[in-house]
Each structure stands twice: as C-alpha cells, then as structure tokens.
Amino acid sequence: MHQMTLAEIARGLADKKFSSEELTKVLLARITQLDPQLNSFISLTEELALEQAKAADARRANGESGALLGAPIAHKDLFCTQGIRTSCGSKMLDNFKAPYDATVVSKLAAAGTVTLGKTNMDEFAMGSANESSWYGAVKNPWNLEHVPGGSSGGSAAAVAARLLPAATATDTGGSIRQPAAFTNLTGLKPTYGRVSRWGMIAYASSLDQGGPLARTAEDCAILLQGMAGFDPNDSTSIDEPVPDYAAGLNGSLQGLRIGVPKEYFGAGLDPRIADLIQNSIQELQKLGAVIKEISLPNMQHAIPAYYVIAPAEASSNLSRFDGVRFGHRCEDPKNLEDLYKRSRGEGFGAEVQRRIMVGAYALSAGYYDAYYLKAQKIRRLVKNDFMAAFNEVDIILGPTTPNPAWKLGAKNSDPVAAYLEDVYTITANLAGLPGLSMPAGFVDGLPVGVQLLAPYFQEGRLLNVAHQYQLNTDWHTRTPTGF
Ligand code: GLN
Fold first, then answer.
1. pLDDT confidence band for 399 (50 / 70 / 90)
2. Does the pLDDT at position 22 exceed 90?
3. Which DSSP category does 65 fall into?
4. Average pLDDT, whole number, for the chain?
5. Among this protein's residues, is 76 annotated catalytic?
6. Helix (H) / strand (E) containing 42
7. Backbone phi, then psi, for 335, in 5-degree steps?
C-alpha cells in the first residue's frame, strides 16, 4: 500500500479498494517503524490524521470526489499548523504552537488531505544538508551515511522512503529541487507569488516559495493544484488563474525548444552527472524536443549575490525572535539586553547566527551600497539573462546539483563549500522563476536530478515535460533498499 502514488491512491479511494483511514493507519505504522533510521519527522499528528481520514471517507461516502480527498501528506515544519508545534527546526520555536493554519495548510485540508505530521528541516530553512536542525540531522534513505539535501530534507527523506506519497516543502535557493535530486524525487518550486506565503515562517521573503515534493510529476501536479492560488493575506501573492495541471500533463513535446546553458557544464560539475544529463537530453529529443545551446553569462555572480540578499532578509525577518515577541526566553535575565542576548544566543544555532551576522553587516551604513545594493543589481542581471534566453527557448535544462549527496558531516567545517553546491538552483529564486527537479539516474548508488526551468507561471509546462519524460524512463520508480 505504501508504494502507491497520490494518483494511485486517488483511484483506489474512488474505487473503494481501501479507505483513507486504512491507508493512514498503514502509513502511521510505517513511520513509527522506519523513521527512527531517518529522523524525517519532528512531530507526528496521529490523532489529527485519523480524524481527517475519517472525515474524508465520510465526504466520499456522501458522493464527493477529488484527487486529494483522503490523501495522506505531511508539512514541512515551517508551515503554521493551528495548535500543533511549528518549530522551523529550531530550539527557538520548540514550544511554539501556531495559533492559526498557513494558507497552504488550510487549502490542502479543505481539499481533504490527511496530515500525518510535520517534517524535519534545516533550522529556519538555512542549509543544503538538513544537518542544521535542532532536532538532529536527517539521513538519506538511499544511503544512511549521506545527507538527504536541505532544507526540506525531512519531507524528501520521508517521501523517498515511502513513508508517505508526498509532502509540502519550501524553496528559497533550492530547498525543494536539491533534496528532490538527492533522494530521487520530483520537486517543483513554483513562480514567486503562485503559492501563498501566509503562515509560512519567513527566511528570505523575496525568495521563499512553497511547493510540492513527490515521486512523480503527476503527483506534483495534484499537490500543487491544492496549494496554488491567490491569497489576499499575502501581498506578494499574484492573482493569476490556476490552470488544471493534471489536464496539461499529456501535451506533446514535438518542437519543444530546450535551452542548455553552456555555463552549466563548467569545471565544478561531476562528469558522471554531466553524462546523465546528456542522456536525459537525448531522451527528450526522442520525444520531439529541439536542443539549443544558450548562455546565462551572469550565473557566476549569483551565489555571492544570493548569500548577501538571503541573509540580509533573514536578519530582518528573524529579529522578531527575541524572547519577548516570539521564541525561546532564557532563564533569569539580568536586564533587557541580557534577555535579548542570551535568548537569541541559546535559541539560534550556529548557521542561523552566522547568517544573521552576515545579513546585518551587509545592511549596515557604509556597507549597504557595497554589498546589498550591488547584490540587488546582480539579481536584475540574472533575471535579464533568463528573459533573453526565454525569447529563444521554451524551457532551460541542466543538472540540479553539481555533485550527488555528500556524506553526513563532510561540509560542516566549511559553510562556503556547501553554499557553492547551490549554483544551479539559486538563480531561479533570484529571478522568481519556476523550476522542477526530476530523477535522471544514479552515481555510486546515489540519485541525480535534472532541472528544468520555465518562464513565469509556466509550471504546467514543466510538469508536462517531466511527465512525458517519466512515461518513457523509470528512474523515478526506483526504491531505496530497506524501504
Ligand atoms: N541552501 C540554500 C540556503 O542555505 C537554500 C535554502 C532554501 O532554499 N531554503 O540558503
């Protein structure tokens, strides 16, 4: 039962082959049995899940239908869930029970999803390995000595290990696509403004975007359908109609123009990944796509720009966690300054503190023009590169990551080495574009992802291409041994 995709679950429920309650019980038992190896959950919500499953079964019995009605999922632990701990992977919010549901959570609940729990993540979504969580590192089900990617590593590990069919995640610089690549999943970062950020604890507000992590493009389409749409509570949410993503999956790829940026195949890329990307290009050519070499000349400046902008926004967003308005409060403060210092010093981990300091420095008088303003100018150049490219091609294709998942601890002493691994994903966030990662093969038994990028609001095109690719390949069906 645990091998089923969301699409298969929807058919099974519609055909009365099993109930949502039965399925929920099977998955909860599986999580209890197997998750101790992975640490992919911060909280399990058994009671809520069984309640929601029974309610979904009752709705179906009353003649209601819907692809998500009775579908078990989990939420990354930065989506606020009313009355349930929403920790953001931090000691700072270990005892925070959100007073309301994020829009994504309430929309999915209304569609009938069953929440099995809240998934582990890098603290405040800062990281690419899921090692900075206060609740401990998450392990990659493909090799328990390797990281699952981050920051949505809990969602990715849980879905890859078949503990559940799909989960929500967020992507500020790659945190949906990179863990998808590291765990053999399909993950979609939507256009900035497509999915409401209301109730999603902010890391870098101009870059953050929620999206689905699942095993197939078809399942990403189903989950995105329940997440996307205008929300008056989010001033950056965009009032564009949401297409029927599932209905668009079967479009032909005949004549599809795919741009392959020459800068993507430079020195830092593992040559074995380069070969797998070439194979996926050939696969898409067989389906009728036309390949064109393109250039994204400012890509080399994207990492330094991102690692100024994201920490700058984080330093501002995280100022509210001061032991007074929100978050952990230290014992017996001597005075106000002591309260702030010790509460923040105790509540935030090392990576979060590093980013707050970098961000506050970049925004300070005298350095603002040199760092923050400069980074914003680079951001515009990165976007302009994409706009020029999309005049010539329909999608852009390349590797999701330069290397497969590294060993736990391998990059802990060198944060910059980890930042450099974001080279292919962060440009989409700087430009606000949608991006998808899908399975493309294996290197040393570890999964590799191919990334597709599209113009604004063309999530449907990404899902269509990925679905056609998945109808003709079987990488996405491989299951990690032991799960
Ligand atoms: N690895 C990037 C960072 O650490 C991206 C994280 C994310 O997308 N949330 O900032």
1. very high
2. yes
3. -
4. 97
5. yes
6. strand 41-44
7. -160, -175
Bridge partners, 436 (sequence order) = 188, 452
pLDDT for 267 equals: 86
The string of pLDDT tens digits covering residues 447-478 is 999 999 999 999 999 999 999 999 999 999 99
Which of 2.60.40.3140, 3.90.1300.10, 3.40.50.1010, 3.10.129.10 is the CATH number of 6-254+436-449+462-477?
3.90.1300.10
Strands 41-44 and 395-399: what pairing?
Answer: unpaired
**Are the CB atoms for 89 and 77 separated by under 8 Å?**
yes
Q: Tell whether the torsion through CA atoms of 148, 152, 154 and 155 is positive or negative.
A: negative
Which DSSP symbol is given to 228? B
**Is 128 annotated as catalytic?**
no
Single out the residue of 302, 285, 278 nearest to residue 398, CA to CA: 278
Strands (E), 209-273: 210-214, 257-261
In the block, which residue shows the tokens 């309650």?
21
Look up 175 and say whether it is catalytic. Answer: yes
First-to-last alpha carbon distance for the chain, in angstroms, is 13
For the residues of 93-139, what is the DSSP string, one character each? GTT-B-SS--HHHHHHHHTT-EEEEEE--SGGG--SSS---TT-PPP
Ligand 1: residues with CB < 6 A are 125-128, 151, 171-175, 203, 310, 422
Question: Which atom belonging to ligand 1 lies closest to the Cα atom of 172?
Answer: 8
Predicted TM-score of the model (pTM):
0.98
Which residue(s) pair with 452 in the sheet?
Answer: 397, 436
Of 87, 128, 151, 155, catalytic: 151
- Tell me the pLDDT band of 177, cut-offs 50, 70 and 90: very high
CA distance 388 to 383: 9
- State both tokens at 52: 């929601």
Strands 166-170 and 210-214, bridge-based pairing: antiparallel
